[in-house]
Amino acid sequence: MLKKISLWLQYGDWYLIINIFLLMIFGLATLYSLQINVDNPNFEVFNHQLVLAGVGLGLFILISSVNFKVWADYYKIILFSGALLLVAVLLFGADIRGTTGWLVILGQGFQPVEFVKIALIIFLARLFSQSNYQANLLKGLLVSGCGALLLIVLVLLQPDFGSAMLLFVAWLGMYFLLPVRKKTVWAIAVVGLALVLVFGQFFLQDYQKERLLTFLNPQADPLGSGYNVRQSVVAVGSGQLVGRGLGLGSQSQLNFLPEQQTDFIFAVIAEELGFVGAGLVLLLFFSLLVRIYAIGSLAKDNFAHFFCLGLICLLTAQIFVNIGMNLGLAPVTGVPLPLISYGGSSLLSMLIFLGIVHNIQIRNKRSLFARV
After folding, report:
1. Percentage of residues in the chain with pLDDT exceeding 70?
2. Among 59, 151, 160, 165, whose Cα sits 20 to 30 Å from the Cα of 99?
């Protein structure tokens, strides 16, 4: 154990670690600010997220100490386990706001789909890193597509349209990295989107359909289904250059802005810290994506390379969707902002993702120093 800790400290990527830490600080500071200037403040959400952040960092260190190749060796079992989790959700899950997406164990709820994202990226990275799938693109399309489709359908049955779309984008983005004709990828994207929309027509709840219709026509029901987005856009605009200050945002403090700690936390940041604060968050995300790309590029192992690229596809899509719905540029789908939004499942799964990336970087550095 001491040897592992020594190696971790010696070869750890502090650029990556500090980047992760700063994003988490933004999230915690925002959650704390929501209770500063209210009557009878309740810091339960902040305290819960603070505990989860501590657990998550411990998990990050633990995963960083595990050889990333272990995950590649058990990619089929990991995918199957993810599918079983989603089936368990459908059979025994708790229904929250019309979506059966949570399992409750020992009084604690968690959202399995957040961990299924890890299973899918591991499965695809292992699959696409094999030369026979790179040489036979049709085989790669069919096998990877079947694995992704299994998970996507199970998620749609919850129904969780936002997470299903993220899984689809992650699969398509990783397939795009193969030497395949780009017209083929665009054709798959159009067909896949059409199938998801048709599927959603039968399984999505009425309020979820209203969200999609509101995105297409935001002014159709400004006081009903369009209220959330309207208030979010107002909050973002009112922040101007430097914001109103932590705890001083009128939209968030007076509860005009709904789901402040989860879906619309970026709007709170923009209102309280302005363009400067929101821009810094975007810069940190960009820096994180660039670092993951650099780590993947240095990796000599094909699985590590594809894993990093897959995480970039997933993270980019998730950031775009969350911030897009805060700005009225994407439908409201309940997608959290990575490392910032309140929610244990999202935070822990992302730190597991990044723990695997960090282990890849540790091994990159050890290999480099071994050649010196």
Report:
1. 82
2. 59
For residue 74, give both structure tokens: 């058990």
Note whether 344 and 52 are within 8 A (CB). Answer: yes
Tens-place pLDDT, residues 197-219: 666 666 666 656 565 655 555 55
User: Nearest 5°: phi and psi at 117?
Assistant: -60, -40
Mean pLDDT across the chain, nearest whole number? 83
- Amino acid, single-letter form, for residue 137: L
Residue partners of 286: CB distance under 8 A and separation at least 6: none
Q: Are strands 108-110 and 99-105 parallel, antiparallel or unpaired?
A: antiparallel
Token code pair at residue 140 = 């790669």
Strand partners, 94: 102
Distance CA 216, CA 159 (A): 21
Q: What does the alpha-carbon distance between residue 144 and residue 303 come to, in Å, rounded to a whole number?
A: 15
Residue 370 token pair: 């071994």
Q: Are the C-beta atoms of residues 140 and 133 closer than 8 Å to each other?
A: yes
Query: 40 by DSSP, 3-state: which?
Result: coil
Quick: pLDDT tens for 94-140: 776 666 778 877 777 789 999 999 999 999 999 988 866 666 767 77
Say how many residues make up the chain.
372
Q: From CA 152, how far away is CA 124, in angstroms rounded?
A: 14
